[in-house]
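Bench notes, afternoon.
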Amino acid sequence: MTVVVVGAGHGGVQAAASLRDLGYPGKIVLADAQPHPPYQRPPLSKSFLGDTPEQPVRGEPLRALEFFDNHRIDLELGTAVTALCVKDHHVHTADGRTLGYTHLVLATGAANRTLDIPGTDLEGVVELRTLADAASLRSRLRTARNILVIGGGFIGLEVAAAAAATTSVTIVEHNERLLARSVTPIVSDAVQRAHHRAGTTILLNVGAHALAGTNGQVQQATLTNGTELAADLVVIAVGVRANDSLAAEADIHVDNGILVDDWLRTSAPNVLAVGDCVSRAESGLPTPRRLECVQNAVDQARHVATSIVSGSSDRYRRVPYFWTHQLDLRIQTVGLGSNHDECVVLGERELDRFSVCRFRDGQLVAVESVNRPRDHMAARRILDEGRELSIAEARHPGFDLKEFAVADICSNT
């Protein structure tokens, strides 16, 4: 009995750890192409960028190295898996080995999208995905005079927030608002106001057309509307794509990620997938979608470990939640509300202390909270347990999410 886990990010490490926690007796191989021991990803665009360049280039470990030894997990760093042979239940590695498996867990994550414009190969044009990327960016932030962030998603905005206190920052976003794929316009407005207060210039409905420089160093950006901007540091943050090529080459079904069913099973026998690489149909959504967040990867990993060890037939039904800290905003969301049809705002929007309850067909499907962590925790409980909250109740003067969650518990005891 052997489980091979491909990818030692949050999902891969959790899958291996949960297998042992649940008493899996067989061999566990955790293979990753990166040479670094597994580390926390979220701090790379937040607290890590605020560290001084002299501090060691090391991430916050997901687990101490002793953990893998103590739990009999074969951590294979610098080991790239190059091919899957799902018919014969083994994988091939770049160093010429063949690893057999009883179950295979794909936790291959995602890679940054690139921009197909001139000048992206210039010095000073960077991205942020790995620990090495973060260390390079942290150093460059100390000397840059004009920073251009291409992309108004979470990563781009977190980088802009880290840089705003010390230098000139411009954000370019091709959509009509920031975080357009992730949050409601109400929350987008609060984010935009916060970055404006920090002195950041935000340009919407425009993209980058070309980058140019002298002596190999970026100095200028030309936008799609013809505007020219000075920029000696350009951060490209235009989203990510699933690392699904290994699966596709093995004829495992993919569609903007590795397709899985409600049990996180792929189209190949005894092959499961978790995390950012996964594409999965969600109730109420017309097409499969990927969720790029740590909690989702970790919860999915725990689920597949349970399935492998106990043969559980339970569907995966965890409600996802996300968070970001930017400047004076703490934004937390729970649920999937991308195709909601009605919203109710709670709290003080003008003071950036509010929550947005998103409803679809009269059912609460998501809650976004800005500087209201109490609301977020209550919303997680309500959505996790499938409690019914009507639009009329949410609109009632003085309605409070936490009081509703607690009252609902009391009424059921």
